[in-house]
What does this fold into?
Amino acid sequence: MDLLKKHYEKIILGVVLIGLALAVAWLPFKIASDRQTLEDTRNNLIYPKVKPLTNLDLSIAQDAVKRAASPAPVNFSEPNKLFNPMPWQKRSDEQLIRADKVGPTAAVVTNLVPLYLRLTLDSVTTSGSEPRYIVGVQNDAATSPAARRKKQAYSTLNAKNDTFTIIEAKGEGDQVQLTLILNDTGEHAVLTREKPFTRVDGYTADIRYAPENKFWAGRRVGTSLTFNNEEYNIVAINQNEVVLSAKSNGKKWTIKHYANIKEP
It folds into this structure.
């Protein structure tokens, strides 16, 4: 104990010196370790490790492309008339009605009846140098009622009349078969006693105009209709429609046969 009391300063100094020596010996290792840490940090910042890309979820974008390929129909016309407002008119009974529900667009063809050209071989006269053929002619589409009545035409082979020319006759008497050329179209028609020739040459139309509760039956081309304070002439009729022309300005309107109108 006396030794420690006398030399404790030297002992403490020795311990301190030993500690310093150990610290000096450890310092190069610490510096090397810090340098490596700094180098690793620098490398990680400059050359970062990039993770491989995973499969992208493109379902939302693909759904959007599909929707764009078939856009939803948007109708700004019917029934709200957003960008094309429809004017309204007042009827004689003070009731308001849309303008597209009056005039020619509101007219409807309820029925169409075909008008035929009919040719019949009525008889054959064999007296004389060559046979004479009596052919009945009835044209339902003629403009005047008198011209629509059946008339008989007396004709011989290759003789032209107002309606046709007989170009061939096969057989004799009531068994004869005639081949005719029609003057208006140049088409051929075959005619026997049992088999007449018929051809559609026009139509009559039944027309209804609901806003004024009007109805016209059996109207032909050339006749006129008066409705919505306007007079319209029928300028054409076919198997599907009727064409009207306004007398005031010549504007044409096509109205469909009711049976051919498809629901929207």
Remarks:
- Helices lie at 2-46, 59-69, 145-148.
- Residues 116-201 form one domain.
